[in-house]
């Protein structure tokens, strides 16, 4: 795409003679087909006020929307009415299309039928096509006195990716996106740019799919660091991971749970080894070991109260020491975390009243419920969380994120009592799932026992967290930004329910 603002984005490409139409046939399939027409135009660069754009090249690829594969392609140089005045030195610097190249090309009138059949009645797609390419096509048809093709729909990947992907690639121009994903320089030639547009779109979609499917992995700020730190500290040994216990009653549909002392050992189980993530930094290997790292990060912690000594009470927090730490996260962009005195901020608070029990309203991409409870919080905890929320929100905006920020603390009831949502993450391996939160029960005597569940059961869990019951919560604060929603998620590491 050639505009004045893009003129320095690429070195000039070699001059080319007018090519024959590309693709499976001399002409593209008939108009109005089901394919998506990704297209791009190259134009002259106006040198004075009032001078318009001259169309120099048109290129398009028809893409099957179901499989995103190329069905046909077409490209042609276009001779403007006056090549000498239209093709300036600035224009050549922008796209490498010289006067000699377009002097032997057909005028737009001769290729208008092919362009019309490609575009009319199809979904149009391209980068910045709404403001630039579509307007140039309409102007070209108007100049020869013909009605322009009309789209069945429009997909402009510039605003689409800016909205969905955020400004991770800076100004989100095609050259910036290609550089971000390591796809090389943008040539500013129509067919090359269209193919690059498709590749960028696939890369962005893959990242967004991973973030939507595994948000607790790709947005939990210290997961990989914890896994790598433990693997280095423990050598090559793989952690012992408990297997879910089988139901003791085969004909019983209700899942069962057993109780073991909080200071006792975890239930016996097979050694489910996990690859050492420190052996490779490759993103593909990172994704392949996601489940292992999730298990590693949640089962290494001992359930004794001493294991939670790093969790701070609200009155132990000095807001002047709270800061947002930003670091790159492999190829997936930036990683933000909330720190207190240069350590990840983790909080604990006792006697929180359950306002709403376990909800199954929200589902993940696999159709499993996202488990969480809503609790009332005291004023001192509310002040700390609101401070963190405001700090993280400003950091997100300064980074260029366009996502809608979701407030962490919400007021409830006629007295405006502050409430928060505590998330209870689960780990899925094959057909089974376990809670990654330590769920315990505190007897009236003060004795604390850990509850061991054979499987995830939202109904059974809801019977513990009934409205009005009290719970001691140990949780981390994790910043997320995906699907155009951003905020702080409170992830419960340990929940101690008070028995009545």
Automatic annotation (TrEMBL):
Disordered: annotated span: 1-29, 233-284
Any matching Pfam family: RNase_T
Domain of life where this protein originates: Eukaryota
MF term (GO), any: exonuclease activity
Limits of the Exonuclease domain: 35-210
Entry keywords, A to Z: Exonuclease, Hydrolase, Magnesium, Metal-binding, Nuclease
InterPro entries: Ribonucl_H, RNaseH-like_sf, RNaseH_sf
Cofactor list: Mg(2+)
Protein name: Exonuclease domain-containing protein
